[in-house]
UniProtKB/TrEMBL annotation:
CDD domains: Ubl_MoaD (cd00754). This is Molybdopterin converting factor subunit 1. Pfam families: ThiS. It comes from the Bacteria. It comes from Cupriavidus pauculus.
Length: 85
């Protein structure tokens, strides 16, 4: 299944790209599984998408949780939480 990835702010800076189209393995069916799969790239990917790191995710512009399912052609975004003041 092919999906579009988007990375914003500090996540984009760490992974070195703002967007990427990837083919994910059949077992990657949720946002959480995608995040874990991307961490296997190692290095900055592992750090930027670390399990304990506060990170927001969205699927097709809607806030997503780790158990949100993926669909072919969807867009998944990763970005740091926003604070106001």
């Amino acid at each position: 299944m092919d999906i579009e990835l988007r990375f914003f702010a500090s996540v984009r800076e760490q992974v070195g790209t703002g967007a990427e189209r990837v083919g994910v393995p059949a077992e990657v069916t949720t946002v959480g599984a995608l995040r874990a799969w991307l961490r296997t790239r190692g290095g900055q990917w592992e750090e930027a998408l670390a399990e304990g790191r506060a990170l927001r995710m969205a699927v097709d512009h809607a806030v997503a949780r780790a158990d949100t399912p993926l669909a072919a052609g969807c867009e998944v975004a990763f970005f740091p939480p926003v604070t106001g003041g």
